[in-house]
Amino acid sequence: MSKKPRVDFYKLNSQSTLALNRFCCQLADKVVKLGHSVFVRTQSEDESHMLDDLMWTFSDSSFLPHAIQQRDNDADAPVTIGHDTNHESAYLLINLSADVPSNIDSFERIAEVINDAPQLVNQGRARYAAYKQQDYPLHYHEIKI
């Protein structure tokens, strides 16, 4: 049996979707600078495009190379954004969707990013319980922005 990926929950003390997406970009940027690949799983195609736009502009001092799953023909991009659960693998999965992806064991790390919006908190609690029931190593971080 393979080792289960570590799951980190990041809870932002804000209800801002923009703040949540900016944090996601910062986390992806940090992981890419460490030499790893990232898959960002969004809830929808629209959310994927919004995050794509933000990754071009979130930092004045750097650019985060990325591609949208099944649209951009850039297999070398260290960050892939998509809402399809059938992404092969990457070092880190940043999950912005409402459910636990079916293929989480193909990642080394999972980042669950939520904010104080009641719907996201409730969805996050459900995912936390699902991971806990399956004995994934869980870690929780309060992020003040």
CATH architecture assignment = 3-Layer(aba) Sandwich
What is the averaged pLDDT score?
90
Reading the helices and strands in chain order gives: EHEHEEEEHE
Quaternary structure annotation: single chain
* Beta-strand share of residues: 15-25%
DSSP strand count: 7
- Name the CATH superfamily classification: DNA polymerase III subunit chi
Q: pLDDT under 50 segments (min length 5)?
A: none
**Top CATH class:** Alpha Beta
Major sheet attributes: 7 strands, parallel
Number of helices: 3
Radius of gyration: 14 Å
Percentage of helical residues? 25-40%
Distance from first to last alpha carbon: 39 Å
The side-by-side strand order for the widest beta sheet comes to 3-4-2-5-6-1-7
Shape: globular
Q: Can you tell me the number of structural domains?
A: 1
CATH topology: Rossmann fold
Structural class by helix and strand composition: alpha/beta
Provide keyphrases for this structure.
alpha/beta; Rossmann fold
Would you mind describing this structure in some detail?
With about 140 residues, this protein is α/β, with parallel strands linked by helices. The chain has a single domain, classed as DNA polymerase III subunit chi (Rossmann fold), CATH 3.40.50. Helices cover about 30% and strands about 25% of the residues. The protein contains three helices and seven strands. It has helices spanning about 15-35, 45-55, 120-135, and strands at about 5-10, 40, 65-70, 80, 90-95, 110-115, 140-145. The protein has a seven-stranded parallel sheet with strand order 3-4-2-5-6-1-7, sandwiched between helices. About 30% of the residues are buried.
